[in-house]
Amino acid sequence: MAPDVAQFKWNHHLPIEDLPREAEVIAALGRQASALGVPQPWAEAFFRAQIEASKTAQNELFQGWDVFKRGQFPDAPDLVTVTRPKLDRLTDQLLHALAENWPVLSDPTRREDVLRAMHPMQAEDLSAKAVTQAIAPLGR
After folding, report:
1. Which of 72, 94, 99, 102 pairs as cysteine with 36 (C-beta 3.0–4.6 A)?
2. What DSSP line would sit under 25-94, residue for residue?
3. Could you tell me which residue ranges the Chorismate mutase domain spans (predicted)?
4. Structural domains of the chain, count
5. CA–CA dist 113, 18 (Å, integer)
């Protein structure tokens, strides 16, 4: 979803980072995860990593577009009405997957299994650095 977010922000000259919104989202997701049985501090660190990974991917896209003096993206989806609802649905699925898999994710003897299962990821085509950031909490 990072390319869709980045295209909208590029078209509207918006900053990639929105710290107040990020803090709200992370806190809310931490509370939701806790209600599902995933420790809030772990969930907050996990979702913070997802946001950081998205910002990394967006920054990399912006850098490339800036170098090549990229114009507007005429087909960029609207951030509020299209992309965020998609992100909300994906995040809800992710929350439930984390809760369902918490026994494995929290087992230190299974860390290598978890990390191995996370590769290969399609997002590596976009940003290997972002993938590394996104899955880092799974190895802790």
Report:
1. 99
2. HHHHHHHHHHHTTS-HHHHHHHHHHHHHHHHHHHHHHHHHHHHTT----TTPPPIIIIIHHHHHHHHHHH
3. 1-62
4. 1
5. 34
pTM: 0.89
Query: In which domain, by residue range, is 19 found?
Result: 2-139
CA distances (Å), 18 to each of 14, 25, 69, in order?
A: 9, 11, 24
What pLDDT, in 10s, does the model give residues 3-31? Answer: 999 999 999 999 999 999 999 999 999 99
The answer to whether the Cα torsion of 91, 93, 97, 99 is positive or negative is positive
Count of positions (residues) in the chain: 140
Q: Report the C-alpha gap between 8 and 16 in whole angstroms.
A: 10
CATH number reported for the structural domain that contains residue 59 in this entry: 1.20.59.10
Q: How far apart are alpha carbons 70 and 117 in whole angstroms?
A: 36
- Which residue matches tokens 């977010």? 5
